[in-house]
From TrEMBL, chain A:
Pfam families: Med18. This is Mediator of RNA polymerase II transcription subunit 18. It is found in: Nucleus. InterPro entries: Mediator_Med18 (IPR019095). It comes from the Eukaryota. One of its GO terms (molecular function) is transcription coregulator activity. Component of the Mediator complex. One of its GO terms (biological process) is regulation of transcription by RNA polymerase II. Gene3D superfamilies: Hypothetical Protein Pfu-838710-001 (2.40.320.10).
Automatic annotation (TrEMBL), chain B:
It comes from Caenorhabditis japonica. The gene is MED20. One of its GO terms (cellular component) is mediator complex. It is found in: Nucleus. This is Mediator of RNA polymerase II transcription subunit 20. Keywords: Activator, Nucleus, Transcription, Transcription regulation. Component of the Mediator complex, a coactivator involved in the regulated transcription of nearly all RNA polymerase II-dependent genes. Mediator functions as a bridge to convey information from gene-specific regulatory proteins to the basal RNA polymerase II transcription machinery. Mediator is recruited to promoters by direct interactions with regulatory proteins and serves as a scaffold for the assembly of a functional preinitiation complex with RNA polymerase II and the general transcription factors. InterPro entries: Mediator_Med20. The lineage of its organism: Eukaryota, Metazoa, Ecdysozoa, Nematoda, Chromadorea.
Length: 232, 197
């Protein structure tokens, strides 16, 4: 029932100005991993904790970065995501997503980052992305389930990649590892105070112990430390 | 959005409006179109410019086209307004060319099944011309209403009907008309208006 009321409120909300559009949000995120063979245990735990029902998804995600000569050290990452055809109505729709650099907040128990997303329809997305000056870094497929608990989103998915890029049929898809990725997040308005939400998220994450330990992964630091030797 | 024909006229917006009123047209509201080019910073020519457009008829949509020779060859996309915000993050590769932005503002007339928009194109502070958009609301198939639209323009204006938009001329494999086709016509007109002094 609570959800229903929320939707109504959203409909009566006055039109937002360009600076506070619903497209731009900040999110609190935690990551964890679990062996794929233990995913059924995690699902049972989530079924007990979360809102009833979950959504299955099978998506293709590509990460792009901006190709620019002037400033090669500044990297702008853009993610493109599409859902694999479940019915042909949603073909050619892509989610274009910009993920900002995480806030350097040591006290916050979760990753905080800005996020802008946009739904794009293009008959030839790859050519269009190239025309924008974007170059693909890597791609992968994720298959898993989405659960919700109030405004918390819980995703667990197994990552696969294609051994023949461009082909995404079942014969060319290969698993990346025998673990599943677990991601829990909360989306907040752009300039909202994030600390209470981050604490709620941390508390929720602790309930998944000992099955899965959710961490504030310093993925950006790791990214830079591997990037340096590669540049030599 | 039905099949639409956008063209530039060599008379004032007021006189076009009077003309429409004489045929029974009714001013229903205003409309606005903006066309902003995003160009790569100087010295970086490895990707082309991108034209970002909005139309008040689709207020929550952004149209983006990287113009090539023809519409079919040009990479293009329809996005929600979040795309504008993402573009600002791509400023290393694409910067908005504020001086080249063209705004078209004017009135929208209703004439039975037709919607006619008459607007004045302005670049910065300079008036560049008058643009008319004729839309036949009832059909999405170009071949179905092409002849009738030519007749409509001929009947109302008694000129301009000879230079037809690209989409009217292409006959092989006609696709359903989409708002992007309208925006492509605006894009071409804006490119022409920019060169005009």
């Amino acid at each position: 029932m609570e959800n229903l009321i929320d939707i109504d409120e959203e409909a009566t909300r006055p039109q937002l100005s360009i600076n506070s559009t619903p497209y731009q949000t900040q999110e609190c995120v935690l990551y964890g991993s679990i062996f794929s063979k233990h995913v059924p245990d995690l699902e049972r735990r989530l079924a007990g904790l979360c809102d009833p029902g979950c959504e299955e998804f099978f998506e293709h995600e590509m990460s792009f970065c901006l190709r620019s000569l002037a400033s090669s050290d500044v990297k702008t990452d853009i993610k493109l995501r599409r859902r694999f055809r479940t019915d042909h109505q949603i073909q050619n729709y892509w989610q274009l997503r910009y993920i900002g650099v995480p806030e350097p907040d040591q006290k916050c128990p979760t990753i905080i980052r800005k996020e802008i997303s946009s739904l794009v329809h293009s008959s030839d997305m790859m050519t269009y992305a190239k025309a924008l000056g974007l170059r693909m870094d890597y791609e992968y497929m994720t298959q898993g389930k989405l659960w919700t608990k109030g405004n918390i989103k819980i995703l667990h998915s197994s990552l696969t990649k294609s051994i023949r890029p461009g082909n995404y049929d079942s014969s060319s898809i290969k698993s990346i590892s025998d673990s599943s990725l677990v991601e829990i997040s909360i989306s907040l308005p752009e300039s909202a105070e994030y600390m209470p939400a981050a604490k709620t998220l941390r508390d929720f994450a602790d309930q998944l112990m000992p099955l899965c330990s959710m961490e504030k992964v310093d993925y950006w630091k790791k990214m830079f430390s591997t990037a340096t030797p590669a540049r030599k | 959005m039905g099949v639409t024909w956008v063209f530039e006229v060599d008379q004032t917006a007021k006189s076009v409006e009077r003309l429409l009123e004489s045929f029974g047209g009714e001013c229903v509201s205003t409309f606005a179109v903006d066309i902003s080019p995003y160009t790569p910073p100087t010295g970086n020519a490895d990707h082309a410019s991108n034209i970002v457009m909005h139309h008040s008829k689709c207020p929550q949509s952004t149209f983006s086209i990287c113009p090539k020779d023809t519409f079919k060859k040009s990479p293009k996309a329809v996005c929600d307004r979040g795309f504008d915000l993402i573009l600002s993050k791509l400023s290393n590769g694409l910067i908005i060319d504020t001086a080249g932005k063209i705004d078209i503002n004017g009135n929208e007339y209703k004439l039975n099944d037709w919607t006619v928009r008459v607007g004045t194109a302005v670049q910065g502070t300079a008036v560049k011309g008058v643009v008319v958009e004729v839309e036949y609301d009832a059909s999405l198939i170009v071949v179905q209403c092409r002849e009738m639209m030519v007749e409509f323009v001929k009947y109302v204006f008694n000129k301009y009907y000879q230079t037809q938009p690209e989409i009217f001329i292409i006959t092989e494999k006609p696709e359903n008309y989409s708002p992007l086709d309208t925006m492509w016509q605006y894009l071409l007109i804006a490119a022409k208006l920019r060169k005009k002094t």
